[in-house]
Amino acid sequence: MAGGVICHQSIDEFKRDENGLLRENLIIKGNNLIALHSLKEQFRGQVKLIYIDPPYNTGGSAETFTYNNTFNHSTWLTFMKNRLEVARELLKADGMIVVAINDAEMFYLGVLLDEVFERENKIGVVCIRHHPRGTTQSSFFSTVHEYALFYAKDTERVTENFRFETDDVEEEESFIRGREDATPETRPNLYYPIFYNPVTEEITLDNKGDDFIQLLPENRNGMRTWKLVKESFLAELKEGKIEVRKTQNKYEIYRKIVREKNKAKTMWTAPRYDANHHGTGLLKKLFDGQNPFSYPKSLYTVLDILKLTTGADDVILDFFAGSGTTGHAVLELNKQDGGNRQFILVEQLEEHIAVCKERLEKVIEKDENIKTDFLSCELMPYNAVFMDRIQSAQSTEELLEIWPDMSKDSVLKWYVKPNRPEDAAAHFIAINDVEKQKQLLAELLDKNQLYVHLSEIADETFQVSEEDKTLNKMFYSKESQ
Ligand SMILES: C[S@@+](CC[C@H](N)C(=O)[O-])C[C@H]1O[C@@H](n2cnc3c(N)ncnc32)[C@H](O)[C@@H]1O
Which of 49, 170, 233, 405 has a 20 to 30 Å separation from 305 between CA atoms? Predict the structure, then answer.
């Protein structure tokens, strides 16, 4: 069941790579389950990272299930399961998914991910201090953290080393192996003289005369060995890694080493993960002091996740896009490392889509080093149009006006008889409660038909324009038209 798409820009040709894969940044408005099925046509097995920050099902004001705001626990799990199963199909063989979550559903989400992705493919759970001041609502603990659950499609295929570039450290160490068992007798091939000229600073294994000082691996415990055999020593000398330094009338040999980058730790406590400063605060700065979105993630949380899990040309998908932090982080990381990562964002709420687009436009506009853009698309709303009209109606009269259009142009549930609106109207008016009337009217719509499915685009009922039909053909075909 792939949904149709409409794009808001007029497009002559989509950018594609040599294999015909669509290489455009996309922002898609629509229900993410349908969007995932639509994306499957193009992106099955192509996405390197899926990052999602779903509604946490805490029931607070942060909840954003507009059509579904009374989710109970098991409904939430089913909602997630349906999406995770399709999401998995989109991942590359070496792809990964990272899901943000808090204590409310953490255990259940973990079990669900174990089931959908299999336990062996769990990469790890990172605890992120996103709210250092702590929550105040709870009677018990003041919570400062949330989680990011990392799973691979197949851990054996993952090639990333889970080290942060910035943790790379260059250090120096003595060239003498100090261990007691490292003696000239036990390791003769590590014991040889090295010659040094203090004037020219030449270091050599050949005795070139009186201007050279002979150095041996001796420390205060007696004669030891060097750390490398002659051949390796000469190789490092050539690379400029060997140095002689004078300390207290003694010449000592040092060797530069790059200490292996540290593996990323599972506890992320740095100030950059504070969602208030680097999520809400950052958005406020971009939106001239206004606060356009509740509870965005810190840009740096998503940036660090991208650093650990993606390479320069990867496709990144976020199907709970919200204010578009993931898109922003992709742009930022590409700027930092010259990469060409591509983002696909899905969001169903009009007001969130608006924030997301404006945010990314501003980020691109303000930074001359970011030379990219995005396409804004929409799953073709069909019954969704009526859903919106019902939701924004204020009175019984308004609702009654929607009915004739709806009976004619929407896909109703099979048991609704559109040709008997007159009888129904009297009962409808008698309910005398606008909210109940809205629910009743919405009930009649077939929710499986909120969006036009790709296979039905040619159907006259949907009155899809020729232009949109062509666009859909272009979108779903693997080759440029
Ligand atoms: C917690 S927010 C994500 C915030 C985002 N990480 C950020 O930093 O801005 C979850 C988002 O998912 C959207 N959403 C919820 N259910 C959805 C659905 N079924 N389809 C598409 N979007 C949905 C909500 O409207 C909301 O914007």
Answer: 170
User: If you measure from the C-alpha of residue 33 to the centroid of ligand 1, how many angstroms do you get, rounded to a whole number?
Assistant: 12
CB of 327 shorter than 6 A to ligand 1: no
- Superfamily the domain 5-165+263-379 falls into: Vaccinia Virus protein VP39 (3.40.50.150)
What is the reported pLDDT for 260?
66
pLDDT tens column, 185-196: 999 999 999 999
Strand-pairing partners, residue 97, are 50, 151
DSSP assignment string, 86-126? HHHHHEEEEEEEEEEE-TTTHHHHHHHHHHHH-GGGEEEEE
Neighbours of 415 (CB within 10 A): 6
Q: How confident is the model at residue 318 (pLDDT cuts 50, 70, 90)?
A: very high
**pTM of the predicted model, to two decimals?**
0.69
Q: Is 325 in the pocket of ligand 1 (CB under 6 A)?
A: yes
Write the CB contacts of 360 (distance below 8 Å, at least 6 apart in sequence).
Answer: 27, 324, 327, 328, 331, 374
Q: Which two tokens stand for residue 415?
A: 């048991």
Whole-angstrom Cα Rg for the chain: 31
3-state secondary structure of 344: strand
At 125 the three-state DSSP class reads strand
- Span 134-158, mean pLDDT? 94
What's the gap in Å between 320 CA and the centre of ligand 1?
Answer: 4
**Cα 324 to ligand 1 centre (Å):** 9
pLDDT at residue 96 greater than cutoff 80: yes
CA nearest ligand 1 atom 4, residue: 322
Q: Alpha-carbon distance 379 to 29, whole Å?
A: 6
Query: Would you place residue 480 in the very low, low, confident or very high pLDDT band (cuts 50, 70, 90)?
Result: very low
Q: Binning pLDDT at 50, 70 and 90, where does residue 335 land?
A: very high
Question: Does the CB atom of residue 322 touch ligand 1 within 6 A?
Answer: yes
Pocket test for ligand 1, best of 31, 58, 64 (most atoms within 8 A of CB): 64
Taking 60 as the threshold, does the pLDDT of residue 62 lie above it?
no
Confirm or reject: Cβ of 83 under 6 Å from ligand 1.
Answer: no
